[in-house]
Design brief:
single chain, 216 residues, mainly alpha, Arc Repressor Mutant, subunit A, Tetracycline Repressor, domain 2, elongated, Tet_transcr_reg_TetR-rel_C_sf, Homeodomain-like_sf, HTH-type_TetR-like_transc_reg, transcription cis-regulatory region binding, DNA-binding
Length: 216
Amino acid sequence: MTASELDDGRRYRGAAPGQRQQERRARLIEAATDAFGIDGYRTTTVTTICAAAGVGKRYFYESFTDSEDLLLEVYRETAARMIEAIHTGLRGAEAVDAQVRVGLTAYFQLILDDPRIPRIAFFEILGVSPAVDRAYHDVLDALVDICLALITPHVDLRAHPAVSVRTVLFGLVGAIVIIAQKWVLDDYRQPMADVVDSACLVVNAVLAQIGPEEKY
């Protein structure tokens, strides 16, 4: 028995098997978030993650088929945190321009507060496999859905059909992601307030073109 497996026995004594598995899974995800977000996915092994999580290697495969499967789960949880931050910000304002600003502020604040998140979401996720690429585009779709929900009441769909608006919003989301990537690659040198201002300028310029005559 390995030291990790002995530690598992001490930690989980008295817990139901299903609970033990869920707790091991959660510890593996947290350890992988640290490893992928600090050292990088391609330089991290299953052995390293298991050691950091205090989980015997044989238990890794009760939850994940391989390291790519774990990366997908880490990415989904990371993306969920980003989306939740935006939703939380949007609940704090009513006017469209205010919603745009608070939503973007929450997004960039999360990126600033936890550098693991942008490394995983913007860089480590790219070019791994077609399955991981699909997960990346699923998150882009979710971000576009947020934008659609925000602006649909303020868009003249007679002049701009919904399918065209969605295409425009894909471009808009891509622009915001590029702004965030550049900020991270520059080691956050630009003040966050300036980054938010730039992102708001891009969003409001698009809204001014596809929305009715109103001030953004």
